[in-house]
Amino acid sequence: MMVRRLTVAATALALSGCSIAAVDYGPVRHADYVADPRCTAQPGAVVDGDALPLFFATTRLPDCRTGDISMLRHRGDKIRYGRFAVPREVEVGGKKKLRTPMAFQASVDWWTALQAETDRRQGRVLLYVHGYRETFETTSKDAAQIARMTGFDGPVIEYSWPSQGEVLSYAVDETNMYHDVRRFRDFLKTLAERPWVKEIVVVSHSLGARLVIPAIAYVDRTSSSADSSNISNVILASPDIDRETFERDIEEEVLSPRRVANNRRITVYVSHADKALAASRALHGYPRLGSPYCFDPFEAADLKAKGLPVRCYPVSVAGLTVVDTTDVSRSATGHSNFLRSAVACRDFVDVVADKRARPERVATHLAHAFRLLPDPAEPKPDDETICNRVPVAAAP
């Protein structure tokens, strides 16, 4: 137990960014990064939608000084829009790095292209908001996987804020995430108010939940659309947000009776094996929504006395479903089961498709919480294939 506590404490210190990690302005003036005309998309410029099928909006600062445009960890001066494809492995300075094929678009052209794609489908849009320790490339890879895995019938948008992509920069990521709140909420409001958008599926991972939840509440309060009912299907994967704050606020705003009556629902994927959220809990002092850790020792003792798993979930609210992936957790941290575990991936695909029940879900003592268990008939499923984790291809 002592070793475990020391490990968590050490990880929390790393996540806090309190040691050697720091962000400075850098050796290049930010204006020089974007001086090339390619960083300022011209209205009417042609973008090959077949080659770049996915959409992005980003507040990262781009670097247009070389042949390949790259997205930096610095804050940009505005939201930039564009199209992208699955990242590819390229050689840069003798080292292999991921690069995302992409092209910027003028705002008016981007929204026009998004409408055309939405109109061709069912009026559905999927918006993915990443979490801590991500780069533009890793987020693009995950967004592309979500598109493949779900077969989503509509445009997929990646919203990329300036996460540092480094273990020791958790505090910097928190700072940049909060700095981005206004831009993201304005973007979400603009998307929700488009009359051709019939349904928005919002998927957030980790720290991204702290952008998504207040932004939805803002749109609900301020949107010219009376009910904001097109923001209907909200999925929080491993959310790094205070559980008690979520419980206190959610029924008053995002899952108010009126929103739920208009088909608003939230699915939360949690895991007791999530080491990243255990570290976040140690850092913040309170449990995170994405981890069923029992903060109250009396509640834990009561569950144990009843012979139940010692896992504590958020309180029941109409429209809220909790899916516990502890028993099918994958990877060293268990922080991305919805993209790594075959059982969790199948459940996630169904939730995106608006299927609200699965035979693989096992009921708990709470009506709104379910566990995912390994399938006895498939004890070692092919996670890579089922989750559609296609290896990154080398650039031609």
From TrEMBL:
Keyword Signal: yes
InterPro entries xref list: AB_hydrolase_fold (IPR029058), DUF900_hydrolase (IPR010297)
Keyword Transferase (UniProt): no
Pfam families recorded: DUF900
PROSITE patterns: PROKAR_LIPOPROTEIN
Superkingdom of the organism of origin: Bacteria
Keywords: Signal
Signal peptide: 1-21
UniProt-recorded name of the protein: Alpha/beta hydrolase
Gene source species: Sphingopyxis bauzanensis
